[in-house]
Amino acid sequence: MINIHKKENKLPLPPGNLGLPIIGETISFLNDPNFAENRQKKYGNVFKTNLFGSPTIIMIGAEANRFIFSTENNNFVGKWPESFSTLLGPASVSIQTGSIHQSRRKLLSQAFQPRALASYIPSIVEITNSYLQKWENLGQLTWYPEIRKYTFHVACKLLVGTDTTNDPHFAELFEEWFQGLFTLPIRLPGTKFSKALKSREQLLLKIENIILQRQKQPSSEQDALGLFLNAKDEDGSSLSVDELKDQILNLLFAGHEALTSALSSFCLLLAQNPEILAAARKEQEKIICTDMLTSVHLKEMTYLDQILKEVLRFIPPVFGGFREVIQTCEFNGYQLPQGWSILYEVGKTNQDETIYKDAQKFDPERFSIERKEDKSKPFSYVSFGGGMRECLGKEFAKLEMKILATFLLRGYEWELLPGQNLDLKMIPTPKPRDGLKVVFRSIN
Ligand code: HEM
Predict the structure, then answer these.
(1) ipTM of the prediction
(2) Best probe residue, ligand 1, of 106, 391, 403 (max atoms within 8 Å of C-beta)
(3) Which of 196, 312, 387, 439 has its CA 20 to 30 A from that of 357?
(4) Which atom of ligand 1 is nearest to the CA of 101?
């Protein structure tokens, strides 16, 4: 034991720069879309920095992911920056750790089982059609904020059974709360963090009212909250209202934020790649669906699966995941000291040229049965993370993406308006700077 300790202490820290006192390199991390790329070029796949007040080691690539995901709870534990964890709340599954995290994952995952997902399709279709109609009526629109309203509407309906259009204040509060997630946690009047804390209190109150209402009048409709209210963990106990509030807030956030980014990237990339759009429409022509869209139809859309997977590789909605080192360990000859933060980085992992041919090219064919590029090495495709913290809503996300994509491909065309800035603002999730301005029309 003593020998191991001595050996570990002799190892060097990864190269890199800790930046300014306290704020470290946080400002560049938040604002520079090439933050990871520039440092990877200079230092390699493992480098140190300082983010959100913590010395942090950024790790890129399949090898690093394998190490992190396979030694989780032994070397590492989930730990997000203070602003993020305070605003999500200690009882949310993204923040819970150890055995409680595992038992809650099991309980919450009931809402994302195949049977539950299949039952959500009619509601998603109904909401999708109402937004498509609205966008067609608008004719010209800034799409990103509209897609955000759409994903929030679906999340509220399917997770807690409420209709957000009845309470526009709910979405506004969410927006203000969201603005504080990746900021320095300064509790002074007027800071984004303080405003977000206030919004959190109001959101929790609204969520509590929804829960209490549902406890009084159980609904026959299938949604996640209904499942959670009846769910019991291994000890036979159910979730307290206080815990449920944090869990629901977490799911509403996770359930629409990354999806908004993913869907707007889909719309952008297909507008920029007309030959892929045409091939996707061809596939739709082969799938006869005269009545209601079902999971059987969706399963047949294998080329669309490839496209969506490539969208998430090319512009990953989630930049990575934070962990804390709980015992000093070694990776690739570097010391990862106890107490430091780790960030596994998704974007550059998904661009690894040794795995992905012409990684800078948008090419859904790389995921065809013949090529399956991501299968050449485990953990080389990490858009949904991996290991015991892999995205809990992965199948829900894929379902919703596929439904909107299907209706867009079958009935609509969209054109990017000239003169707009299509560069992406990357944090918290990629978003076109001018919000994706398009002309939108029906093709039928
Ligand atoms: C975790 C990506 C949609 C719920 C994660 C993680 C990633 C991710 C990378 C892992 C973070 C880590 O390692 O710490 C995505 C992407 C999405 C998406 C790319 C959309 C395209 C969703 C949806 C839901 C959801 C729709 C719920 C309805 C969650 C939850 C966790 C999580 C609860 C935390 C899991 C845990 O810590 O055990 N997601 N997500 N996500 N995601 Fe998603």
Answers:
(1) 0.99
(2) 391
(3) 387
(4) 38
